[in-house]
Design goal:
The protein is an all-alpha fold and about 120 residues long. It contains seven helices and no strands.
């Protein structure tokens, strides 16, 4: 559990001070409730703070809360943060389905090769 005074200082801080306090907060392994409180700091201009808060939300699988924080951010930042979130959560399984489709085409080629091997 994160001490209230540390969380309050983190939420009120900005710049380098926020980055330093974030390290302290993350070292204490924040739970779901702390992640919910920290979610708005995902909008911090620092890419490091945004990435670490994104990772925290992903670890606790708080996708709805994560998506709410992305409103009105620049499209490039949204794309980067979503990619980071999805990588941590493991949503890449949808991308893995596509190569299997390619594998089917290769599979027919493999069948041809095995048929060639059986004729020899």
């Amino acid at each position: 559990m994160i001490p209230e005074d540390l969380m309050a200082r983190y939420l009120a801080a900005s710049g380098r001070e926020r980055k330093a306090l974030l390290k302290e907060v993350l070292a204490l392994d924040p739970g779901v409730d702390e992640a919910r409180v920290m979610a708005p700091t995902l909008r911090d201009p620092s890419p490091r703070v945004a990435a670490r808060v994104t990772a925290l939300l992903a670890r606790h699988r708080l996708r709805d809360l994560f998506e709410k924080q992305l409103v009105n951010l620049k499209p490039g930042k949204i794309q980067l943060l979503r990619g980071h979130f999805n990588k941590i959560v493991g949503v890449k399984s949808a991308a893995k389905v596509e190569p299997e489709g390619d594998g089917e085409a290769t599979g027919s080629g493999e069948a041809t090769e095995s048929a060639e091997g059986s004729t020899e």
